[in-house]
From TrEMBL:
Any GO molecular function: methylglyoxal synthase activity
Keywords carried by this UniProt record: Lyase
Active site: 60 (proton donor/acceptor)
Catalytic activities: dihydroxyacetone phosphate = methylglyoxal + phosphate
Record protein name field: Methylglyoxal synthase
Gene3D superfamilies from the UniProt entry: Methylglyoxal synthase-like domain
Recorded family membership: Belongs to the methylglyoxal synthase family.
E.C. designation(s): 4.2.3.3
Length: 139
């Protein structure tokens, strides 16, 4: 599965703690992240991560492009709801794309834990169906 990791500045430490706690699950998947978040998670865990630009410089949009191409399976976006973000329209667009393409989205550690634990149990098989145009064939 392709997993995106994004965290606002005040939530980066939460993302790092989360990635350390679930490193044994995340290692089996392809990870993508916005710039600084990806760097910090990689430094803390040693996980291979494809890094895009930072969020305000277009990283959110780069991940959004993968969502629109049906190439992302899960988005973990630890948002800071108490701080105004200068790139809020990009954040809203990313969340909207997750809704449009039925991509599971966690915006906090609690929801991320539920999703990642279920990912580990294999309950994301619906993504294989979505990637194959509505059939359950994995060619």
């Amino acid at each position: 599965m392709n997993i995106a990791l994004i965290a606002h500045d005040k939530k980066k430490s939460d993302m790092i703690q989360f990635a350390i706690a679930y490193c044994d699950i995340l290692v089996d998947h392809t990870l993508y992240a916005t710039g600084t978040t990806g760097l910090r998670v990689k430094e803390a865990t040693g996980l291979p991560i494809h890094r895009f630009q930072s969020g305000p410089l277009g990283g959110d949009q780069q991940i959004g492009a993968l969502i629109a191409d049906n190439a992302m399976d899960l988005v973990l976006f630890f948002r800071d709801p108490l701080t105004a973000q200068p790139h809020e329209p990009d954040v809203s667009a990313l969340i909207r794309l997750c809704d449009v393409y039925a991509i599971p989205l966690a915006t906090n550690m609690g929801t991320a834990e539920i999703l990642v634990r279920n990912l580990n149990k294999g309950t994301f098989d619906f993504r294989d169906v979505a990637k194959n145009g509505g059939t359950n064939e994995t060619t």
